[in-house]
Structures are given as structure tokens and as C-alpha cells.
Amino acid sequence: MLTATTWSHLGDVADAIARRGPPLPPPAVPHSQRPQKQRNRPIRRFELVLDELEAAAAALEGSDDGGGGGGGVDGFRLSDGGDIARGGCSTNPLECAAARRSPIVRLQWCHSHGDALPACVGADRDRVVRVPRPIDPISALPASRFHRKRQQLANMVAIISLAAPFLHGGPATWPRGPTTPPLIVDFCSGAGHLGLLLAVCFPQCRVIVADWNVRSLELAEERRRKARLTNVEVLRCDIHRFSRVFDLGVALHACGDLTDRAISHCLACNASYVVCPCCVGKLHAGTGAGAAAAGAEAGVAGALECSGVGPMPFPRSHKMASILDVKQFEVLAAAADFNAHSGGGQGGEEGEGARRSLVAQETEMETERDAVLRKRRRRCKWWMEIDRSVRAEEAGWRASLYRMCPLSASPKNDILVARKVRV
Ligand SMILES: C[S@@+](CC[C@H](N)C(=O)[O-])C[C@H]1O[C@@H](n2cnc3c(N)ncnc32)[C@H](O)[C@@H]1O
Q1: What domains sit in the chain, N to C, each tagged with a CATH number?
Q2: Is CB count within 10 Å lower at the N or C end of the chain?
Q3: Nearest protein Cα to ligand 1, atom 12
């Protein structure tokens, strides 16, 4: 358990962050061309915050040591395996066919544009689905973005096909009986990149593509029509008010607590889910403090479920809520957010700061200091995703964590899976 002194200091740091906004303002000129004085000041402040967070994360690991050596980390172990609790993750099915028993769905784009995924032994067992041009991101996104969107989709579809075998298992495997085909909901679907693809890959399923942005949905509907898909419903709805019963929830880059809303709908519906969160820095007291405090007052370890309107409680898991209060969680969330600390603006899946940092990594131009900061950010983000996954485990789901392949597919490349175990 963390000492009161550490946490009261972290509380001060959180207050400081709240008062002055994101610690690193977006640089007006490239990092390397900025005068020394201007460059160092905000970074020093940022390091101060991260040093505290690093100490906190280390204390988390060292806490609750029951003699097993793993201490607090063991307390966060997911049923999917020890690697996950120690900062690793499950093997991405696109990277290694040998590590899995069942085949997956691999996508074949209409024009490859050099974005073939890494060759992998055993992949010849997999089912290859040819993507119709109207739902290929190449037809909806600029050249600077479609390539990585394709990579993100290939990862999501592969992991979904592995995590939800009932999608291609035939009526005997359908969760709600052989007369009810599985229903998939793509939350915060935007133009329907993921949902429309799933409708092609799993034609026996029905898919709802749900978002509240009219323009995005018009585009989704146009793409659905052009691809002649008859198993898709394009639905305008605020995620807070979604009320259908379904079997699998998916969400690709649903910002901040929208990912948690999607997960909550899945838990409420006994559905499995595969989500790739983004913008964790948006998780703050305004989205969760009220309900968490109410839960604590009522003697419950956090009022942890909330699938509709009302504040979303953070931390998400009882386990994490027994260690961190909302303010401490906010500090973790702020440090975990890629855009806030890498010089980019807030929000969006492809923040400029995050993109610059990825390019630096890929081209080996990253400075030692940037690498340290990136690793710290990564560690904080990992704890956020562990918290979400432990929440699902506490509710009786089997959770796993994956990362996209290649990692440069997106700065927000964690994929969370939770399978509803049916008895
Ligand atoms: C970063 S985009 C992701 C879009 C899409 N999943 C993709 O990967 O291209 C987030 C989406 O969330 C939608 N959104 C934001 N708030 C929402 C809400 N309250 N209910 C439903 N959708 C919402 C936005 O309209 C936007 O399309």
C-alpha cells in the first residue's frame, strides 16, 4: 500500500496539473530547433510529475507482498496468464499461428500498397477474406491515414475472430441459441470501418454500426449500400442511451470513457468484447468522481457499474479502487496519455505528438530522454488497461491484453479482450 505522504504529494501534483492544464504545450517549432531554455522548462516539470508516478507504480508493484515474490502485481494477474500481469501481453495472432489452436480471419485488401502483414508460420490454415473496395479505408481516408487504419483493422479482425469463435462456429455455438444469429455492436463506429468489415467477414451475424455523428453515419450508410451488405444496421445513438441486447461489443478508438461505456454495456448484456481504447488522459474526476465517492460512502468498494448516463466511476476495478482514489487515478491517467506529453494536441486517434514520437522511434532518432519518458508513459497506460481488464475479471469474464502488430499501426495500440465464459 502506498504511504499517505506519497499520495498527499501526488494529490498536490494532480492539483497542479488540473490548474495549468496539459503539462506539455504543443511546440510551435520542431523540438530540435527550439532554444535550450524554452525546451527544458516544460520537460523538467513533466519529469517531476512522471518521477512521482514512477515511484507510485513501483510502490504498487512492491505492495501487498504475500511472499510470492510478485506482490501487488500478482494481485492484478488476469486468468489469461502471468505474462500479462508482468507487463507483457498475449501473442498477437497475426504474428504467430503456432501459438494458437484455432484459425483466424486475415484480410486481403484490393490494392496492397505494401501493407502486407508479417509472414507467419501456420498462417495457411487461416481464412482469408477479400475486402470489397467500398469498405476498404482507402476509399474513405486520405493517403496519410488509410495505411495505418488498415493495419488497425487487420489486428482487430484477427483478434475478434480468435476471441469470439461463435462468429464463425455455426448455429450450435450461438450464444443465444440456434435461432438467434449473433449480434455485434460497433460502438463509436465513425464511418463504420470495423463494423462493416465484420459484416463481410461473418455474414451469418448481424452488425449494428452505432455512432452519434450524422456525417460519419451517412458515410457508413453509403459504404454499406455500395458494398451491398444486408446484415448491417446503421444506428444514430448516443452511447449513453444504447439499450439493445447483443453478443459481442467492439470499439476501435472510442475516446476516453466512451470505451468504458462500451465495456459496461457488454458486461450488462453478458456479451464478450474486443476494444482498442484511446485518449486515456480524458479519464478524469468529472467522468467518475461522483459515483466512486457515492460507492465508497455506501461502504461498497466503488459503484463500479454504470452502463448508461451518470458519472463513470474510476478506477474501474475493486482491486485498483482499494489502492488508488480518483485523484491518484487522474494522475496516472494524465501521465498515461500519449498526446498530452509528446507535444501533440489532445484527442483523436492520430495525435501529431504521438505520431512524431512513433516516427522518432521507427527511425531511431529518439533521444535517450524521450525513450525514458515513452517507457514511463507506457507503464502508466498499462496500469490503466490492467484496471479495465481486472474489472471484467471481477465480473466473471476472462480477460486478455494484446498489442497491435506492428506497434506503429497506432500510438493507441492496446487491444483489450474479455470473453464471457458460459457454463
Ligand atoms: C476517434 S473516433 C473513432 C471512429 C471509428 N471507431 C474508427 O476507428 O475510425 C470516435 C467516435 O466516437 C463518436 N462518439 C463520440 N461521442 C459519442 C457518443 N456519446 N455516443 C456515440 N458516439 C460517440 C464520434 O462521433 C467518433 O465517430
Answers
A1: 45-57+71-340+370-420 (3.40.50.150)
A2: C
A3: 188
